[in-house]
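Hi R.,

Here's the chain you asked about this morning:
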Amino acid sequence: MYDTDDLIQLSALQHMAFCPRQCALIHVEQTWTESGLTAEGRIMHERVHEEDRVSRGNVRIESGVPLRSLRLGLIGKADVVEFHRTSDEDWQPFPVEYKRGKPKMDHCDKVQLCAQAMCLEEMLNAHIPAGAIFYGQTRHRLDVVFDEALRRETEAAAKQAHALIESGCTPKPVYAKRCERCSLKVECLPKTMQKKRSVKTYLTRVTGEP
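And here is the predicted structure, written out as tokens:
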């Protein structure tokens, strides 16, 4: 269990699952640059959070729901939580995360959504089996099942994010295809930084000096 003073932003898990260096740049070095794409994403989230409570038959929709987990050491907000009526007095929470782009090959968005569900489970003493991610580019929802594998991945990402942020150290870059869609590509300079390391390694090998 974490103390309230030790909680980190839930979004750090998405950054950690995408790239540890990106996580450190944002949450350790406080680096952030607004681009056209990130601005679109921010505006989407702001609009969702400003929505009033809505009831549609057996579904109640809450926007901008505060989240916290002392077990995972997280704090943040859910874009939307739908509460589906299962009986006269029982409602099943169903978190929905909004993303500007399209579904990714990795699990970084799913980890973020699963973390939201695990926060809600702790807060509401409930079991949440599934949620969804709405992608603005495709205008479709991606249903996500919170199975044991995804829950373990989410818990691991939380531990890794805590350890990284507490260390205060930013990992060195390792260029990969994901770098091309990173909002911090200019600040990170993955190709340049990696090339510098390669030159240093070469000179060390040639000269025999550390």
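One quick note: The chain has a mean pLDDT of 85.

Cheers,
M.
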